[in-house]
Design brief:
4 helices, 27% helix, 11% strand
């Protein structure tokens, strides 16, 4: 995925994952190092199902998100805190908004 393999996977980044991910990306999601992820697979103790495709491991994103406790995708990609609430914004369309109080 990205070159930032040392940083944990963020919520928004997790929701943008493809149908399956490589083991390094899954390790980032669980905040473990790739060596630990490989060890858990050898011990048959990885937190979610792992597919072996050729010589590589692939983790279905649906299982990954389920194991992380993300059951449903939100309707919006930007968190509500990032955008001002409609009540916090001045109402430019209201006819009385530009009038001075008497």
């Amino acid at each position: 995925m990205s070159g930032r393999s040392g940083l944990p996977l963020g919520f928004a980044e997790a929701l943008d994952l493809p149908l399956s991910v490589d083991l390094r990306t899954a390790a980032r999601a669980f905040a473990i190092c790739p060596a630990t992820a490989y060890k858990l697979i050898r011990l048959d103790a990885f937190p979610c199902p792992v597919l072996r495709v050729g010589g590589r491991y692939r983790i279905p994103t649906a299982y990954l998100l389920h194991t992380l406790g993300i059951e449903e995708r939100p309707l919006y990609a930007v968190s509500p805190e990032d955008e001002a609430a409609p009540a916090d914004r001045p109402d430019d369309t209201h006819p009385d908004a530009s009038e001075e109080p008497e």
